[in-house]
């Protein structure tokens, strides 16, 4: 079943009711306070990802949401996918809000929503980066989780609107030693654990939106 634009908007409204994420602001901010070690590790991780022509991933993600009454709720999701710089990508994400599958074949971007038993396809020009922009703009936050790591230049997007970045030393993620980074942007706090290896790989991040409290 093909999803009509009106029905897709209803799906996005449902996601927005549970997860409150604000669009990035273009207003100037004060000079960011970033720990040199945090910046170095984030850049190394981004450069490594940008240099991969193809890769596959399995993910477990937690998103922390602050309700209007101040209570924090954690939403969990799991997923898997494959990515090729020159050919496109395919990702599946199963979580508290919805189960979705995204496919980009180099020309067409398709979203399938299991709860609606339907799909929507959009023609995209400009390769993977343009398709990733379209994911966020057209399909909403539940479909877009983690796309910031897939761009040709991940570092540029991760650093957008950043106000502060801290390095909290090493931690253990699944018995693997990793560097613990914490960043604050204008409307969102996020953390990332980066595996302590010569070639730095990213492991799942936790995101909490300050904007969810009112």
Describe the overall structure.
It is a single chain. With 214 residues, the protein is α+β, with helices and mostly antiparallel strands. The chain has one domain (5-22, 34-212): outer membrane lipoprotein receptor (LolB), chain A, CATH 2.50.20. The protein is built from 5 helices and 11 strands, in the order H-E-H-E-E-E-E-E-E-H-H-H-E-E-E-E. It has helices spanning 5-18, 36-50, 127-139, 141-144, 154-158, and strands at residues 33-34, 54-66, 72-84, 88-95, 99-104, 108-113, 118-123, 162-173, 176-185, 188-195, 202-209. It has an 11-stranded mixed sheet with strand order 1-8-9-10-11-2-3-4-5-6-7, covered by helices on one side. The longest helix is centred in the first third of the chain and has 15 residues, at 36-50. 25% of the residues are buried.
Record keyword descriptors for this entry:
214 residues, alpha+beta, eleven-stranded mixed beta sheet, globular
| Major pleated sheet | 11 strands, mixed
Number of strands: 11
Strand content: 35-45%
Secondary structure class reads alpha+beta
SSE inventory with pairings:
Blueprint: H1 5-18, E1 33-34, H2 36-50, E2 54-66, E3 72-84, E4 88-95, E5 99-104, E6 108-113, E7 118-123, H3 127-139, H4 141-144, H5 154-158, E8 162-173, E9 176-185, E10 188-195, E11 202-209
Parallel strand pairs: 1-8, 2-11
Antiparallel strand pairs: 2-3, 3-4, 4-5, 5-6, 6-7, 8-9, 9-10, 10-11
């Amino acid at each position: 079943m093909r999803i009509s634009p009106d029905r897709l908007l209803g799906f996005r409204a449902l996601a927005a009711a549970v997860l409150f994420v604000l669009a990035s602001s273009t207003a100037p901010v004060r000079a960011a306070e970033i720990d040199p070690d945090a910046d170095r590790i984030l850049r190394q991780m981004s450069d490594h990802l940008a240099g991969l022509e193809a890769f596959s991933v399995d993910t477990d993600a937690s998103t922390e949401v602050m309700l209007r009454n101040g209570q924090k709720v954690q939403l969990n999701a799991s997923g898997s996918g494959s990515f090729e710089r020159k050919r496109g990508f395919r990702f599946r994400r199963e979580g508290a809000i919805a189960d979705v599958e995204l496919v980009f074949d180099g020309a067409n971007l398709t979203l399938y929503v299991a709860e609606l038993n339907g799909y929507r396809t959009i023609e995209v020009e400009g390769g993977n980066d343009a398709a990733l922009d379209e994911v966020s703009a057209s399909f909403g936050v539940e479909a877009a989780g983690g796309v910031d790591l897939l761009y040709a230049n991940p570092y540029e997007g991760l650093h957008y609107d950043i106000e502060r970045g801290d390095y909290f030393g090493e931690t253990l993620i699944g018995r693997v030693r990793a560097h613990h980074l914490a960043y604050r942007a204008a409307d969102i706090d996020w953390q990332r654990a980066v595996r302590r290896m010569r070639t730095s790989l990213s492991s799942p991040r936790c995101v909490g939106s300050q904007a969810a409290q009112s």
